[in-house]
Amino acid sequence: MLRHHHRGPDPQPNCQPASESVVPVFTIPAVTWTLTAVLLLSGSYHLLHAARSRQLTDRINKSLHGLMNFLMAAMLWNLVASTMLVQIAVLAGAAVWFVIQAVARPEFTILCAGRQGRLRCAYHSLTMAGAAVMIAMMAPTVTANQATVAASPAETSHAHHTMSPAAQTHTAHNTTGTGMSHSPDLTLLLTAFFAAATVVFLVLLLRSRIAKTSSNHARPRDHVRAEHGLEALGAAIMALMFAAMTA
Question: Is 70 helix (H, G, I), strand (E, B) or coil?
């Protein structure tokens, strides 16, 4: 008498890498490592100037910029995902701090002074807010990926085979998509904004190089050019990351 043994489905291999990038397009190692190096160098530059600054507000501002760069670098590697709420709170607080400086009365000279200073602080507030929004968009994706890795292969395979095709399609979309993939208008708006900011800072960088006249102003102008270059680089990275999220 023949007995038919029912053999369960073979466990599906877990193909998700341990250090998968948050943004899907940045799973390309060369792109991820390049952006990580740029962000870490930029963050170190801001922290170095924060340590050399004499004014307290300059130290705070540059420290916040350095912290934002480090958080974005960590975002590329899904690092410190358990502290995402803290990261969002810190970046949101930094955005409010720059807004306060941008709208402060002119007599508070230690804050953003002059039209250009106020515009710069307003832009920095939007940058901090954009970084907070980006982390908030990524939070559901990281949670879903961690839950998938934590589940055993047998449980994952059994759940996959017992679900209906429609449910499988819906689950796959929610697991692999970005956290706020249902808000493409926001990501497109932020992509366009930071792309425009990149062009503006590149124009300012070119103007500062052309305006270099006397040697006695070479040092401050070099510092201004470095600031414009870093701003353009940071805006380009933000635009690239938001553009990748719309793909």
Answer: helix
